[in-house]
Amino acid sequence: MKQLVFVLLLVTEASPRSNCTLWKLGCDCPRDYKFTICSRLDLTQLPGRVPTSTELLDFSGNLISVVPKNIFSANRKLRVLLLQNNNISVMEDGCFAQLEFLQKLDLSWNRISSLTEGFSVGLAFLRELQLSHNQLSSLDSRSFFHLDGLQRLNLTNNRVQSIQMRSFSTMSSLRQLHLRNNQLASLRGGTFSMLRSLEILSLAGNQISKIEMVVFSPLTSMTLLNLADNRLSTVSFKTFLSIHTYSTHILLQGNPWNCDCELHRVFRKLRSIQRLFLDDYSNLTCMEPPVLREHLLTDVDSELCIAETVTVLIITITVVITVLATMLMGERKKKKRRKGLHWTQQGEFSDVSDF
């Protein structure tokens, strides 16, 4: 009897694993099949026959290079798919098409250089997409076409140089957009036109030197704008004035500021707007002019307009002196004309008396 019980226990323990063939590859398949862990096994391709009840599937830290079409067709219950730290460079169109309940997809630390429209097919309910540390160089209107429900998009540490108009046009629910450490040189109006729910926009560590005036105006929910470590030498007051959120924190440290009177005026106006907060203003340093290089802006901002004020005073004084001199010269000429007329009249009177 005892032997029979022991055999039954062994069968009970073994039966879950026997239904999960991935254990032969070294994967961990718990009894309920909701979590299937196949990380750091040096796998070169995605294996099939993942338990259909799996909700979290982890293939991170392998050597996978291709995500084939329909590879997850039997895994409609997946909610989290982890594919980070692989060699993925190809994602066939429709490779995630059946994952209608997927909420998080991590593709960071791979070799992805482009995103086709077919990449996002079926991911309408995806909430978080991690694409950091890849090789993306541009974004267009097809890149995220079907990601209607996305709330967090991480594109940090790519090579993005350009963002075409309407690249984020379907992302009305997006709340966080991370574009830190890319190669953006300018921000054009309309780039973020549909992102009315966006709360965090991180653009730090790019090469941005030009920002069009209305680029931030559609972002009516933005609470944090990070523009630190770019190539901004000056900014337009109206660029930030167009931000109409109740409270927005702006980071600008690490830019090569040209500390002149105009910059002083811009920041003085911005700091007076109650809904805008320049959190790192005390850390801004000057790059130009050379005499102020590496000086904190707060240490010299009160002096930036002195030279201009002196110049204006000199010009004003010069104009006043010129006007006064002109008026004085005019008065002198009038007096001379009056004297000349007086002597002429006396001469005529003398001539008449001779008769």
| Named CATH topology of the largest domain | Leucine-rich repeat, LRR (right-handed beta-alpha superhelix)
Through-space gap between termini: 171 Å
CATH architecture of the largest domain: Alpha-Beta Horseshoe
Please tell me the overall pLDDT: 85
Just give the CATH class of the largest domain: Alpha Beta
Query: What's the arrangement of strands in the largest beta sheet?
Result: 1-2-4-6-7-9-11-13-15-16-18
- pLDDT < 50 stretches: 1-18, 309-316, 349-355
Structural class by SSE content: alpha/beta
The largest sheet, given as strand count, sense and whether it forms a barrel, is:
11 strands, parallel
Report the portion of residues in β strands. 5-15%
Total count of domains: 2
**What is the 3D shape?**
elongated
Q: At the fourth CATH level, what is the homologous superfamily of the largest domain?
A: Ribonuclease Inhibitor
* Helix share bin: 10-25%
**Count of discrete alpha- or pi-helical segments spanning 4 or more residues:** 5
List the helices and strands in order: HEEEEEEEEEEEEEEEHEEHEEHH
Report the C-alpha radius of gyration, rounded.
36 Å
